[in-house]
Amino acid sequence: MLLKVKNLNAGYGFLNVLWDVSLNIGKGEFVALIGPNGAGKSTVMKSISGLLPPKSGTITFDGQVINNQDCAVNCRSGLSYISEELNLFTGMTILENLEMGAQMLEDKNKARENLDFVFELFPRLEERISQYAGTLSGGERKMLAIARGLMSNPTMVLVDEPSLGLAPQVTDEVFNALRLLNRQGLTILLVEQNVTKTLKFSSRAYILEKGKVVLEGPSSELITNDHVRKIYLGT
What we know:
The protein is an alpha/beta fold. Helices cover 38% and strands 26% of the residues. It has helices spanning 41-49, 71-76, 94-101, 108-121, 123-127, 138-150, 168-183, 195-201, 219-222, 226-233; strands at 3-12, 15-25, 30-34, 56-61, 64-65, 79-82, 156-160, 187-191, 204-209, 212-218. Helix 3 runs parallel beside helix 6. The model has no long low-confidence stretch (mean pLDDT 91). This is Amino acid/amide ABC transporter ATP-binding protein 2, HAAT family. Keywords: Amino-acid transport, ATP-binding, Nucleotide-binding, Transport. It comes from Desulforhopalus singaporensis.
C-alpha cells in the first residue's frame, strides 16, 4: 500500500470530527472519499497532507509514518494536496504560480518537463500564461490548482472538491484530466460531491458519514448499493 491510514482520530480543538477512520490506497489507484457535507472528508485530507495533526491513529505514506510531518515535507516526499480553497497566488501570473509549485524540485530540467506536461493537459493555461490568477474563471482556477500540484512531480495527489461551482462541461474536462493522470500512473485520492461521476471514474470508494467509514468497496459495486443509491444518487 502506498498510503495507509489506521484508526485516525482528528478534529479541531476539543471538537473531534473523525472517529477511527482507516483507509488503504495502493500505488496507481484512483480512490474516492464520498459523504455528505460535514462528514469530515476535508478533515481526512488535511490530516493526511500534514495541515492538521491527528489526535491519534497512524498515517503511513510510502512506508514512512508521517503523522507529525509538515505539509511541505510531505510534498517533498511525493504527496501533493490540492485543496478546495485552491490557495492560488492571485497577484501572480499562471506561469509564476506553476513555477512556485516546482520550487522544491532540484532538477530544473524536470521542472521544464512538468511545465510542458501540464500545458499539454490544460492547453487553456498555456494560452493565458501571462494572465494573473486572480482574473481567471472558476474552471481555469481549478485547472491551475491541479497543474500547480503536479509541478512538484508527486507520487500521489489528494484532490478536494475539484468540480465545486463548475459548469458541467468544465467538470468533464477536470475529471477527464484526472483519469488521464491516473492512467499514467499517478495515485489519486478524490473528495467530491458529484457522486455519480465520481463512482464512474474511480476504481474504489469509501463512504464517510458523521466522521466514520460506513461502507467501502469497488465503485462499480457501490453505485448499485441500496444505501448509496437512496442517500447519494436519489434513486
